[in-house]
C-alpha cells in the first residue's frame, strides 16, 4: 500500500511527530511510505502545488502528521488543507488518518478539525493516534503506535470509516438596516479592539462589524489581519522562550502587545472557513506563542462576530469556549447571522458593556481547569527553558499542586480510616454530611446577616 505522510510541522525533517511515522515505516517495510513536508515547504507549495497533487494521486492512504498548535493544527497545515480544496486534490474515496504529538492540550479539537476537512473533500476518515511528545521514547508508546497502525489497516480492510457529520446549510439572512448612530465615536469612552480577517467581498461580515460598532457605547478600533505584513507562521523554534521576542523581524510581538492586548476588550470577527476561523486567523493565533503559555489578558472580556453556520460547528464552539476559559477571558457571547442578526449583535454589545462596567469575572469550568493543569505541569518541568512562563506562573499562583496540601491529605486519611470501621460508621449516622455542609452554612448565614 502507498502511504503519503503529510508532515504539517514547520520543522520538516526535524519534526518529533514525523518520527512516529518513520518508526512505522521501519517496522512495516511491506508498505511504501512517502513523506511530503507540507508545513516546511508551504510557501513553495503556494506557488506550485503540482508536487503535492502528484504525491496525493499516488497514495492509497493519507496520513496527516503534525504537532498541535493552539487548539488546532499549525497554520502551515491549515494553509495546506486550504490549498488541497482550492486545487481539487484527487482525494475523494481515499482513506485518511492522522498522528499528532502534544501534551494533550485540546488535541481532540485538532483531530476533529483535520477529520472534518478531510470528509469535506470526500475522504474516508479513520480515528488517529494522539500521542504525548515523549511517547515514542517509551516501550509503551511504541506499542501504542504499532497497535494504532495495525488497527488502521484492519479498519481499511473491513471498509470501515467514521460517520460524516451531515450539515443542512440554512440560507444566510440579509443584514437588516443599521440604526442611526446616536453617539459619535470620538465622544465614546473606552477602547474595544475588533480583530478581523476581512476580505473586500465579505459584505455580510462587514455589516455585522459596522452594526456592532454603532450599538456599542464605547470606542472601537478595527484591526484587519489581511493588512498585517506577516513574514510567516510560527516555526516552533522556541527562540521566544526566554525573553518573549520572536525570531521574525516583522514586529508582530510588539504589535500584539501594544495594539491588540492594550485594549480593554477584544472582539474577533470572522467568516467560518474550513470549520475554523480560517488560515489567516490561525497564523495570528500561532504567532501569539511569543507570549508562551502565559495568560496575559486575564479578565479581559472577549466576544465573537461570526458569519456562517456556527450552530452546526460543534468543534469550533468548543474551541472558542475553551480559548475563553483557558485565557480566563469572560465570554460576552457569539453573535452570528443565522437567525436574528441584529438582536444577536445587540445582545453581545450590551453584555460586553456590562462586563466592562462591573468588571465581571467568571470561574473556570472543566475546559479551563483541565487546560491550565496541563500547562502548569508542562511549564514546571520545562522551567529551565521556558523562563518567562515559569516566572509568570509563580507570580500568579498557577503552581497549585494538590499534593502540597498535606493537612488535607492527612485529614482524608483519618476520615477514610473511620469509614473503614463498620461500627464507627454506623455510629456516625449523618454526622459526615453535617460536618461537610457546616462551613457552607456559616457562609450562607453570614450572607443573610450582611443583608440586614
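^ C-alpha cells above, recovered residues below v
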Amino acid at each position: 500500500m502507498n502511504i503519503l505522510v503529510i508532515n504539517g510541522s514547520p520543522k520538516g525533517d526535524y519534526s518529533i511527530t514525523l518520527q512516529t511515522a518513520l518508526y512505522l515505516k521501519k517496522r512495516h517495510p511491506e508498505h511504501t511510505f512517502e513523506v511530503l513536508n507540507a508545513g516546511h515547504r508551504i510557501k513553495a507549495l503556494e506557488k506550485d502545488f503540482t508536487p503535492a497533487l502528484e504525491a496525493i494521486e499516488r497514495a492509497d492512504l493519507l496520513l496527516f502528521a503534525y504537532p498541535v498548535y493552539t487548539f488546532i493544527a499549525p497554520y502551515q497545515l491549515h494553509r495546506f488543507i486550504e490549498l488541497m480544496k482550492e486545487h481539487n486534490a484527487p482525494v475523494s474515496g481515499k482513506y485518511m488518518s492522522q498522528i499528532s504529538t502534544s501534551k494533550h492540550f485540546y488535541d481532540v479539537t485538532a483531530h476533529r478539525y483535520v477529520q472534518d476537512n478531510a470528509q469535506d473533500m470526500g475522504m474516508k476518515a479513520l480515528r488517529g493516534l494522539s500521542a504525548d511528545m515523549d511517547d515514542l521514547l517509551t516501550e509503551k508508546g511504541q506499542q501504542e503506535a504499532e497497535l494504532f497502525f495495525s488497527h488502521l489497516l484492519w479498519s481499511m480492510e473491513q471498509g470501515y470509516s467514521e460517520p460524516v457529520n451531515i450539515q443542512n446549510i440554512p440560507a444566510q439572512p440579509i443584514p437588516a438596516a443599521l440604526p442611526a448612530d446616536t453617539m459619535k465615536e470620538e465622544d465614546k469612552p473606552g477602547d474595544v479592539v475588533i480583530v478581523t480577517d476581512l476580505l473586500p467581498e465579505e459584505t455580510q461580515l462587514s455589516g455585522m462589524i459596522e452594526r456592532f460598532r454603532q450599538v456599542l457605547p464605547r470606542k472601537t478600533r478595527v484591526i484587519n489581519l489581511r493588512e498585517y505584513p506577516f513574514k510567516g507562521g510560527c516555526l516552533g523554534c522556541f527562540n521566544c522562550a526566554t525573553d518573549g521576542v520572536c525570531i521574525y523581524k516583522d514586529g508582530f510581538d510588539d504589535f500584539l502587545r501594544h495594539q491588540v492586548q492594550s485594549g480593554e476588550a477584544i472582539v474577533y470577527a470572522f467568516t467560518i472557513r474550513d470549520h475554523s476561523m480560517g488560515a489567516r486567523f490561525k497564523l495570528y493565533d500561532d504567532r501569539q506563542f511569543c507570549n508562551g503559555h502565559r495568560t496575559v489578558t486575564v479578565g479581559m472580556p472577549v466576544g465573537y462576530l461570526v458569519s456562517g453556520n456556527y450552530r452546526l460547528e460543534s468543534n469550533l464552539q468548543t474551541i472558542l469556549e475553551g480559548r475563553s476559559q483557558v485565557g480566563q477571558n469572560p465570554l460576552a457571547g457569539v453573535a452570528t447571522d443565522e437567525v436574528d442578526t441584529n438582536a444577536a449583535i445587540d445582545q453581545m454589545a450590551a453584555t460586553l458593556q456590562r462586563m466592562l462596567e462591573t468588571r465581571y469575572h467568571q470561574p473556570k469550568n472543566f475546559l479551563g481547569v483541565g487546560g491550565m493543569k496541563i500547562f502548569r505541569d508542562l511549564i514546571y518541568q520545562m522551567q529551565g527553558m521556558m523562563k518567562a512562563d515559569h516566572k509568570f506562573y509563580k507570580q500568579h499562583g498557577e503552581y497549585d499542586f494538590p499534593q502540597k496540601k498535606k493537612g488535607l491529605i492527612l485529614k482524608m486519611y483519618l476520615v477514610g480510616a473511620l469509614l473503614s470501621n463498620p461500627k464507627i460508621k454506623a455510629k456516625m449516622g449523618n454526622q459526615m454530611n453535617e460536618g461537610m455542609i457546616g462551613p457552607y452554612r456559616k457562609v450562607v448565614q453570614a450572607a443573610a446577616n450582611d443583608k440586614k
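The mean pLDDT is 90.
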